[in-house]
C-alpha cells in the first residue's frame, strides 16, 4: 500500500512586489496552516517522507506543518519541479518517488493538486483550498503503478473553524 498526502500551500500574500515564486504566506495563511496541521496530526502514517515545492509559500507551509508534526525541518526535501500547476508534471514527480517509501507528504500548488485529487481519488473535490489536506491510499506496492485510490481524509480550514 502507498499513501499520498497532498497539501496545497497556505494563503499567500500579494502585498509585496515580488515574483510569484517568491510570494510569502499571509497572516491568515499562517493561521490556517497551523489550524489544519494541528488537526491533521492524527491522520499521519507512522513514517513518511516530505517533499515540498521550492516556492516560498509552499516552503513556509511545509515548515509549519512539519513543526506541528514534530518532525525536523531538515527532513523536508525541497524540489523545484514541484513548483508546477500542471497535474501531469505533478503525477510524474509522484510516480518517481522511491518505492522504499510507502508514505509521501507533498506540499504544492493548484490546479495541479485539485486535478490530481480528482483523477486519483474516489471523492470529487471542487477545489482543494489553500492549506487543504487530502490523503489518498493506493492498493499497490509501487509508486509508478498508482491508479484510482481511496480518498481517506479531506481537511480544509473552513471545516475546522
What percent of residues are in strands? Answer: 15-25%
| Relative helix content | 25-40%
Query: What is the H level of CATH, i.e. the homologous superfamily?
Result: Phosphoglycerate mutase-like
- The geometry reads as globular
What's the Cα radius of gyration? 14 Å
Order the strands across the largest sheet as they lie in space: 3-2-4-1-5-6
The fold-level CATH name is Rossmann fold
CATH architecture label = 3-Layer(aba) Sandwich
Q: Would you report the number of β strands?
A: 6
Strand count, sense and barrel status of the largest sheet are: 6 strands, mixed
| Count, helices | 5
Note poorly predicted spans.
none
What would the average pLDDT be, to the nearest integer? 97
Q: Roughly how many Å apart are the termini?
A: 32 Å
How many structural domains does the protein architecture include? 1
Query: What is the chain-wise order of helices and strands?
Result: EHEHEHEHEEH
Structural class: alpha/beta
Question: Can you give a write-up of this model?
Answer:
With 161 residues, this protein is an alpha/beta fold. It has a single domain, classed as 3-Layer(aba) Sandwich (Rossmann fold), CATH 3.40.50.1240. It is built from 5 helices and 6 strands, in the order βαβαβαβαββα. A 6-stranded mixed sheet has the order 3-2-4-1-5-6, sandwiched between helices. Helix 2 links the parallel strand 2 (49-53) and strand 3 (76-79). Helix 1 (27-40) runs parallel beside helix 2 (56-68) and helix 3 packs across helix 4. The longest helix has 14 residues, at 27-40. The radius of gyration is 14 Å and the shape is globular. The termini are far apart.
Amino acid at each position: 500500500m502507498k499513501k499520498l498526502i497532498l497539501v496545497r500551500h497556505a494563503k499567500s500574500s500579494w502585498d509585496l512586489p515580488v515574483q510569484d515564486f517568491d510570494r510569502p504566506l499571509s497572516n491568515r495563511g499562517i493561521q490556517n496552516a497551523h489550524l489544519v496541521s494541528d488537526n491533521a496530526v492524527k491522520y499521519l502514517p507512522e513514517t513518511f517522507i516530505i517533499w515540498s515545492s521550492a516556492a516560498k509559500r509552499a516552503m513556509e507551509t511545509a515548515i509549519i506543518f512539519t513543526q506541528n508534526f514534530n518532525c525536523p525541518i531538515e527532513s523536508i526535501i525541497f524540489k523545484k519541479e514541484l513548483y508546477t500547476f500542471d497535474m501531469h508534471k505533478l503525477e510524474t514527480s509522484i510516480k518517481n518517488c522511491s518505492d522504499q517509501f510507502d508514505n509521501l507528504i507533498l506540499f504544492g500548488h493548484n490546479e495541479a493538486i485539485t486535478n490530481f485529487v480528482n483523477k486519483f481519488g474516489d471523492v470529487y473535490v471542487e477545489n482543494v483550498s489553500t492549506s487543504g489536506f487530502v490523503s489518498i491510499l493506493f492498493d499497490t506496492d509501487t509508486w509508478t503503478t498508482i491508479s484510482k485510490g481511496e480518498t481517506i481524509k479531506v481537511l480544509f480550514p473552513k471545516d475546522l473553524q
